[in-house]
Specification:
Blueprint: E1 3-9, E2 19-23, E3 26-30, E4 45-49, E5 54-57, E6 80-84, E7 87-91, E8 106-109, E9 114-116, E10 121-122, E11 132-136, E12 139-147, E13 158-163, E14 168-180, E15 185-188, E16 204-208, E17 211-215, E18 233-237, E19 242-244, E20 261-265, E21 268-272, E22 283-287, E23 292-296, E24 309-313, E25 316-320, E26 332-337, H1 342-353, H2 362-371, H3 385-406
Parallel strand pairs: 10-15
Antiparallel strand pairs: 1-26, 2-3, 3-4, 4-5, 6-7, 7-8, 8-9, 11-12, 12-14, 13-14, 14-15, 16-17, 17-18, 18-19, 20-21, 21-22, 22-23, 24-25, 25-26
């Protein structure tokens, strides 16, 4: 049974709408809430190490004049990010001024931490935000989102929405594009058949095998507000370029889902959370073989926030950021272990029961401290010979001093 194992504070501010990818044992986050945009004029990049459970902010990049280079994206939210080999492609979004960003991707090298903006050709998608993107091999797929007008290619469904607050016209799209990163050529996918998803934004796309699963989202505002939100699954066959028709499932996640967290594990689609408040914090899984939903019961205390960002690292789901309504952006991070090991269960028992830790190996004590959010340092595996011995002696001396202080000894006068 899945188990909530870690709850930490201290996630970077502005993490309610970032884009994130998992790279080996680390999670890279890009951008986030535009309400925090006064901190920087360029997109912030933060890295969470799932081993040390520490966040690191990468330094901003500037040219000789101290300005943001053109190859570095501006601060944004509502954008997408996908990892293809050793490169993250960041696309779309909107800026603090409300400007919708172009769909020409920025490329971030996870090994060198360098930005670039590759030249692209073909039919570049319209500027958009809150679209959904995923990757299959060397190809990135981009679906839906909203733009500033409703003019699309023939046959593409869209829904136009007039915002009375800023007198702007927005269009929710249902178009599907792909970017082949080997040639950097964009192309429009014209499905050979099937029922496509309704025009949507704030939805999710995930790949299982060669199928793309589109779930949730929001369409143009309707008189019946519930009809504007979706909780249907649509499946696109990337080999035959068709939307697959399936009978509607009786059991679905309660409440229509947007701003939800979606991920795949063991060839099943999982959904957690939502902006909507009707039971959004339950975890649901979707089986692609039976085309059916099932509620997943988790042990432990999970998050109470919505609009959280998520990444899968091995068998663990990492959720962070988010906020509820107009509450301040939260700095919480949670880890859900979908297949907890015996070692993890033992560590949780030590924490829960307050058992004595002094007799445990140093690495285990360090992991326990990390799980509880205490200050900790871990001996690096790169230290050899004298350095490792000195580090061990230093740790041992520190522990003896702390034990002596507890016994009332304050050291030499």
């Amino acid at each position: 049974m899945p188990l909530w194992t870690v709850h930490l504070k201290g996630a970077p501010k502005g993490q309610d709408q970032p884009a994130a990818v998992a790279v080996r044992h680390e999670i890279y986050t890009f951008g986030g809430s535009i309400f925090a945009a006064y901190h920087s004029y360029q997109i912030p990049v933060n890295v969470f190490n799932t081993v040390t459970l520490h966040w690191t902010a990468l330094p901003p990049v500037s040219d000789r004049k101290g300005k943001r280079p053109r190859c570095v994206p501006s601060w944004r939210a509502g954008h997408t990010a996908v990892l293809i080999e050793d490169t993250v492609y960041v696309c779309g979004g909107f800026t603090a001024g409300g400007n919708i960003c172009k769909s020409k991707p920025y490329a971030f090298d996870v090994d060198t931490h360098r930005w670039s903006q590759p030249r692209v050709s073909g039919t570049v998608p319209k500027a958009r935000s809150y679209g959904a993107a995923c990757a299959l091999g060397r190809v990135m797929y981009l679906h839906g989102g909203y733009t500033l007008d409703g003019y699309f290619a023939p046959g593409v469904r869209s829904e136009v929405y007039f915002d009375i607050y800023d007198d702007s016209v927005y269009a929710y799209a249902s178009d599907l594009h792909k970017l082949d990163t080997r040639t950097m050529v964009w192309s429009v996918i014209v499905p050979a058949g099937g029922q496509p998803p309704p025009p949507s934004a704030y939805h999710s796309t995930n790949i299982i095998g060669t199928k793309m699963f589109v779930f949730g989202g929001e369409g143009a505002v309707d008189e019946d507000e519930d009809e504007s939100f979706h909780n249907h699954v649509r499946v696109f066959d990337t080999e035959n370029l068709r939307w697959l028709n399936h009978s509607s499932t009786r059991l679905r996640p309660q409440a229509q889902r947007l701003y939800h967290s979606a991920f795949t594990w063991n060839r099943e689609l999982y959904v957690f959370g939502s902006k909507r408040r009707k039971n959004p914090r339950h975890l649901w899984k979707f089986n692609m073989e039976t085309f059916s939903w099932k509620k997943v019961h988790c042990k432990g205390k999970g998050p109470s926030d919505n609009w959280m960002c998520c990444c899968m690292v091995g068998d663990r789901l990492v959720l962070f950021g988010g906020y509820q309504g107009f509450d301040p952006v939260h700095d919480d991070l949670y880890i859900l272990d979908l297949s907890p090991s015996l070692k993890m269960l033992c560590k949780l028992a030590v924490i829960k029961r307050g058992l004595e830790e002094s007799g445990l190996p140093h690495n285990i004590r360090w992991e326990l401290e990390a799980m509880t959010g205490k200050e900790h340092t871990r001996p690096t595996e790169k230290m050899e010979g004298t350095e490792k011995k000195e580090a061990s002696e230093k740790n041992e001396a520190t522990e003896k001093n702390e034990a002596a202080k507890k016994n009332g000894y304050d050291g030499p006068e």
